[in-house]
Amino acid sequence: MSEYSRDSRYITTRITADGRDGYPVEPGRYRLVVARACPWANRMIIVRRLLGLEDVLSMGICGPVHDERSWTFDLDPGGVDPVLGIERIQDAYFKRFPGYERGITVPAIVDVPTGEVVTNDFAQMTIDLSLEWARYHRDGAPALYPEALRAEIDEVNDVVFRDVNNGVYRAGFATDQDAYEKAYQRLFDRLDWLSDRLAGQRYLVGDTITEADVRLFTTLARFDAVYHGHFKCNRTKLNEMPVLWAYARDLFQTPGFGDTIDFVQIKQHYYEVHRTINPTGIVPAGPDLRNWLTSHGRESLGGRPFGDGTPPGPPPAAETVPASNGAV
Fold first, then answer.
1. Which one of the listed residues 38, 62, 136, 270 is annotated catalytic?
2. Over the stretch 265-306, which tens digit does the pLDDT of each residue have?
3. Domain with CATH 1.20.1050.10 in the chain
4. Is-catalytic flag, 93?
5. pTM check: above 0.85
6. Catalytic residue at 233?
7. Which residue in 4, 10, 100, 169 is the catalytic one?
8. Does domain 147-325 sit in CATH 1.10.150.530?
9. Which part of the chain is the GST C-terminal domain (predicted)?
């Protein structure tokens, strides 16, 4: 059986309040490098927004299409990141690890003074923004990883990663029928489980938005535009799963979530880069995404999106998704 296996050998160096790995939290020292197309990077964009770290941790945005070497800063003037002065995120990896042979991925955090990558361990990175960077959170920042709920959040995150976040890739990149069908079944079994869980509660864990909701949302946001067709996850579209569709719209319409989603770049990335799946590179014109802004009715379940906190303000002008690329 030829089953897709994600390379999970990440750079596990951490940026911490006490600097125990040699990289202390310092405003302005680091640059978060993302691509709006990437669901793993999208998590960092959302968490950074919710916690109000825009002025503390700068963000470089790669374009949606990359080659076999790495993501590039082709959206910037001259194709060069204005802070790091590089054309490819690969350069920051090689600066710290010459001849680096593992995956050159986003999100990644780069130490600006040295130009060296610090970490690309995406699962730990969002949690560290919540815990290690707490001193610099905005007033009213939500508790995305509250201590009392961490065990349950971790448990939910584990199954969601395995069966949903990574599950769509296991279906999409399977190279034989049996591997594909097993991944497909696991995905939709888990989506049904999530639908049952969310039928009576507004959020995945507790009554506020947590890290668990961020991690599920970035997959759901890409489901109909990409995974349903491109990855053959086509039992049902998201908008045909009533509970998950309402849940996803609820989050999408929450400040910090939908305003990070660039549907045009998402489609460009998957359909243009994955030529083994889509040899022509043609990007589909659909689906119609205006229904993301329709009423979801999830308020009836109660819940407090930001707990005792407040919504984030609008994104900085330089980080705003063009209206034409969103759900207008």
1. 38
2. 999 999 999 999 999 999 999 999 989 999 999 999 999 999
3. 147-325
4. no
5. yes
6. no
7. 169
8. no
9. 146-273
